[in-house]
Write a structure and sequence with these properties.
Layout: H1 3-25, H2 33-37, E1 39-43, E2 52-56, E3 60-64, E4 73-80, E5 83-91, E6 101-108, E7 111-118, H3 122-128, E8 131-134
Antiparallel strand pairs: 1-2, 1-8, 2-3, 3-4, 4-5, 5-6, 6-7, 7-8
């Protein structure tokens, strides 16, 4: 095999290794990982209400609308980097809330913030776009 071909093959192999390494280091997950979301969150400003949003491992969430400890609404979530998709499965469901809602989120300094991408459920948009803190 000529030297030039060997060098081209070696360069191609090195490129594949480099791309594979970069892809492996930056795989899926959110910046905080699912573990950063797990647990209960409440509105930062209590005048906005007593709503509690709880994330469970395995992609499930629930909402307690009035802080009485009862699950009022629930569903599943899916993370893809800093994007989260909610799909309501049961409970009190408002108009258009059976469709998925997509948001970008940031988790920093103990605060959780959702920024709307698309969601036809006006009640979810109104609640989820508030600032949240650990509950």
């Amino acid at each position: 095999m000529p030297n030039k071909v060997r060098k081209q093959i070696a360069a191609g192999v090195l490129m594949l290794i480099a791309v594979g390494t970069m892809a492996g280091c930056c795989h899926y997950r959110s910046p905080a990982g699912e573990g950063g979301l797990i647990g209960s969150w409440k509105f930062k400003d209590s005048y906005q209400g007593n709503q509690v949003l709880t994330f469970r491992s395995g992609g499930n969430y629930q909402v307690d609308f009035d802080g009485d400890g009862q699950k009022d609404s629930w569903g599943t979530y899916h993370l893809n980097w800093n994007e989260i998709t909610f799909l309501q499965k049961g409970g009190k469901i408002g108009e258009a809330c059976e469709a998925e809602g997509r948001y970008n989120f940031t988790l920093a300094g103990g605060e959780l913030n959702f920024r709307l991408i698309s969601d036809a459920c006006t009640s979810r948009v109104k609640a989820f776009t508030m600032l949240w803190v650990r509950g």
